[in-house]
Write a structure and sequence with these properties.
160 residues, 5 helices, alpha+beta
Length: 160
């Protein structure tokens, strides 16, 4: 069970009462980059965290600042690759950016994934999310092929 601090940000496990707030964070960030919210598609997992993450060997985390959810990050096992997970829903509101929190969150997700014995991490993203692209590329993720999510045009992987 994760619960840790980075500066004044609390990173903790998602709970059912976080469902609407976590979804709103993701909706806001997507909108900021002119990407659409897809409740019946790419974002269904945020509305059904139990089925997609918690009951499937994954985790879903939220980031709080002064009691408000300002970010999310998650992963779950996938069939792509070998003994693999996909990091998903790594979003931070503008007020949570610029502190190194994204890099810290990525490192914590990687540490949790490693502890679970997974061997590969996959990430899909969109080129328009330039900060995310830079974060992944600067942290050892290699470009790959086989994008599966419609609004994404990039896929990365990392061997652990």
């Amino acid at each position: 069970m994760i619960s840790l601090y980075f500066r004044d940000f609390l990173i903790r496990q998602w709970k059912p009462s976080d469902r609407d707030s976590a979804a709103e964070v993701i909706r806001c960030v997507l909108s900021e980059y002119s990407l659409g919210w897809e409740a019946d598609g790419a974002d269904r997992d945020v509305l059904e965290v139990e089925d997609f993450y918690l009951n499937n060997g994954g985790e879903f985390w939220v980031i709080e600042y002064l009691g408000e959810i300002v970010g999310t990050g998650a992963y779950y096992p996938i069939k792509r690759g070998e003994n693999s997970v996909e990091i998903r829903k790594m979003y931070l509101l503008p007020k949570a950016r610029g502190y190194g929190l994204g890099k810290f969150l990525l490192q914590q997700l990687e540490a949790a994934i490693t502890c679970c014995g997974f061997k590969q991490i996959w990430i899909e993203t969109a080129s328009v999310l330039s900060e995310a692209v830079k974060l992944y590329e600067n942290n050892g993720y290699k470009a790959a092929t086989g994008v599966e999510t419609e609004r994404c045009d990039r896929v990365y992987f990392k061997e652990l």
